[in-house]
Task: inverse folding
């Protein structure tokens, strides 16, 4: 912009203003000159500098508004109010400078403010949508917890979700109320189910307490029993029932268990002591029976069945009087004695058989019959051969071979009778 010619009364001038001889200070605008003040103190040039600094202050305020608006540190609404005040200040400013240019810069901020308003609306809409999505997720998770049986961590999780919900911004009333209703209903449903669960659990635990008190009484009664077999079975059954009874209230359950375990320990300790004494007795019995086995096995081989049977009866009587031996030795010692008994029995039966006249007569009769049968077959064979009847001769010969084998066996049996 070219500088206009200064009036004749001008004593100091600049691009945007002048000072007249009487000290009046003017600023030049698009609408013409406007008086902005008076300067009487020092040189007119200093007056122009003073009013130029005022313009500079306004310029700084405009620049600061521009920076804050563009950086997003000032909301468009606040920027609009600040721009309105600045515009009024610049329009009527007692300052020397490009006031029109400064007003244009302020006016130019309207576009920026509109863009910022639209951006903020989009940001608020996105934030609201994000908040809505998170609240829907919270409601959905709360509903899942409400349907679960996570009684230990579920309540804590719902508390955490409530804290998070309270920290989130509110949505539109209808949407926020609807989501809150879902969330609140889920928390209420979970709380009711949890209370019902623990009430039922308390009932079961009281029932378990009554059952375990009965089992404890039976265990303490059995703890002094010396009927080891039935009592041991009873203790095992009580333990099975104890485990199946479930837990009583914690402090009661622990105390009942201590007493129940003590009753079992007392029984098993006594049984162990009795078992140790019994094992010692069984070990002595084994030693005695091994000595009898040595005596019994000395009867073999049997040469005199009658004498062997008499000595064996004495050994059996003493064997029965001794009593039981350790379980892992029973089969061995019983098998060894049984072998001696079987050998003596076999020898006695053999001696009796040899002296049995009826058996001898049957053996003699069998031998005679077989010899007669063999003679007849030989005669039949000879006749068939003479007659040229080869088939009949072969059949007779086969029968002769069989009869001879039978005869050999029968004669062997007869020989055992000494005949």
Result:
């Amino acid at each position: 912009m070219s500088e206009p010619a200064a009036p004749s009364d001008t004593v100091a001038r600049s691009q945007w203003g002048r000072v007249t001889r009487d000290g009046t200070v003017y600023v030049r605008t698009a609408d013409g000159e406007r008086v902005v003040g008076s300067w009487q103190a020092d040189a007119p040039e200093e007056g122009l500098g003073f009013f130029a600094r005022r313009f500079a202050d306004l310029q700084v305020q405009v620049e600061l508004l521009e920076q804050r608006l563009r950086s997003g540190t000032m909301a468009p609404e606040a920027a609009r109010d600040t721009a309105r005040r600045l515009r009024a200040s610049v329009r009527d400013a007692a300052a020397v400078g490009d006031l029109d240019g400064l007003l244009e810069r302020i006016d130019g901020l309207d576009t920026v403010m509109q863009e910022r308003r639209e951006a903020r609306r989009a940001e608020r809409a996105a934030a609201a949508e994000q908040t809505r999505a998170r609240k829907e997720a919270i409601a959905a998770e709360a509903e899942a917890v409400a349907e679960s049986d996570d009684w230990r961590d579920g309540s804590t999780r719902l508390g955490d979700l409530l804290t998070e919900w309270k920290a989130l911004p509110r949505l539109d009333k209808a949407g926020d109320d609807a989501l809150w209703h879902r969330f609140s209903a889920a928390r209420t449903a979970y709380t009711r189910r949890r209370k019902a669960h623990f009430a039922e659990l308390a009932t079961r635990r009281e029932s378990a307490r009554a059952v375990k008190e009965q089992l404890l009484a039976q265990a303490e009664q059995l703890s002094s029993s010396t009927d080891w077999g039935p009592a041991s079975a009873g203790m095992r059954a009580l333990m099975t029932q104890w485990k199946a009874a479930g837990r009583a209230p914690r402090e009661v359950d622990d105390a009942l268990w201590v007493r129940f375990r003590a009753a079992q320990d007392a029984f098993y300790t006594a049984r162990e002591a009795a078992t140790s004494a019994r094992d010692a007795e069984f070990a002595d019995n084994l030693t005695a029976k091994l000595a009898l086995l040595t005596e019994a096995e000395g009867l073999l081989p049997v040469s005199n069945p009658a004498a062997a049977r008499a000595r064996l009866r004495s050994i059996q009587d003493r064997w029965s009087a001794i009593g039981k031996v350790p379980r892992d030795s029973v089969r061995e010692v019983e098998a060894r004695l049984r072998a001696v008994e079987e050998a003596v029995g076999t020898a006695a039966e053999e001696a009796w058989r040899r002296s049995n006249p009826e058996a001898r007569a049957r053996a003699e009769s069998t031998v005679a019959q077989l010899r007669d049968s063999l003679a007849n077959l030989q005669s039949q064979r000879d006749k068939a051969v003479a007659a040229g009847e080869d088939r009949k001769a072969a059949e007779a010969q086969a029968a002769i071979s069989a009869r001879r084998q039978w005869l050999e066996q029968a004669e062997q049996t007869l020989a055992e009778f000494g005949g």
